[in-house]
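Researcher: Batch entry, complex prediction.
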Amino acid sequence: MHNLSVWAKGVSPSPTLAVDAKAKALKAAGESVCGFGAGEPDFDTPEFIKKAAEKALQDGMTKYAPAAGVPALRAAIAEKYARDNGLVDTEANQVIVSPGGKFSCYLAILSVISPGDEVIVPAPYWVSYPEMVKLAGGTAKYITTEMEDGFKISAEQFKAAITDKTRMVILNSPSNPTGAIYTKAELEAIVAIAIEHNIYILSDEIYEYLLYDGVEHFSPASFSKEAENLTITVSGFSKTFSMTGWRLGTLVAPAEIAKAVGSLQSQTSSNATTFAQYGALAALEHWDQSISAVQDMLKHFDRRRIMLLDGLNAISGIECNRSEGAFYLFPRIKNLGMSSMEFADKLLEDKKVAVVPGEAFGAPGYMRLSYATSDEVITEGLKRLNEFCSNIKG
Ligand SMILES: Cc1ncc(COP(=O)(O)O)c(C=O)c1O
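Model: Structure tokens for the complex:
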């Protein structure tokens, strides 16, 4: 029996990675699994990005890089934020390149949260936020939303949740797990409250380019100087350019916070993989080519989104919003008379269909399905899901 630390004892393993691992293990054992668990695009990284990293590797970019990131990449990220996100004065010293958007989020939280601080986390939330807050010694305070709210908090709800210990609010638009996107007006109202109460905003924008139905994405830091001064914007290359395995995240913050984040990174991971950063640099330097690769991917995602949405809503007992971002749908299954956890377990066991139960995201009664999978898997998965639900009801 080992004497584990409070941190190790307190933290839960990622349930989304666990579902994915279970589905992959069943598949490896020869089962025909319909996997809706994965949080990654099922496309390969665009060829020109791979080639740039290969070249960097051959050219000897195999040594440590500066902890905050390769200077040319930091400059290119600053330029992207100025051009595409409306953060017009962003400079390279405000940018950190980390080993993944996940690590960027953790560093953002560590940089401003001390033991005893409260962080407001809208639920459904991405699985890692509460655990990261815990690891920083903070306390997550949840604001629950339902599908009728479009899974979004209002400025009034935010205001009501603020205490004298509140230091940060986490916004994630487009959202994992719901795919919900805040409008500019909704974000502006929330940001105004944050400014009034001097609360930091962690804006996780990792799905910023995965948008459907003509909706637009907005970065809270672009709203005003005051907003920029309180916002830590996180994104990365994983979801946009199918680079999940490369482990490359970004963070943009006021220079003083970015410097602190750089120090935290220098004492924990050092730098993100050096030659991988040159692949990311190519993605930014050849932006038109990159965006065209994203558009191709989006065409497939959009078709699958509608297939899955229509299929889910056709099943008696399941209700699903038409989400406009990321690659997830988050249907309600409360009416089927069992917990989402039990539903997901039985569904995998009986029908070999992998979904992530809503409990993982602080939203019992719902489940998350990723449509970053093939049309065939969606068709077959819906058929099995329909049979499974008919059996429960029957
Ligand atoms: C909301 C959200 N933020 C951040 C991440 C981190 O992505 P990565 O660490 O692969 O860059 C993910 C990945 O699942 C996510 O869904």
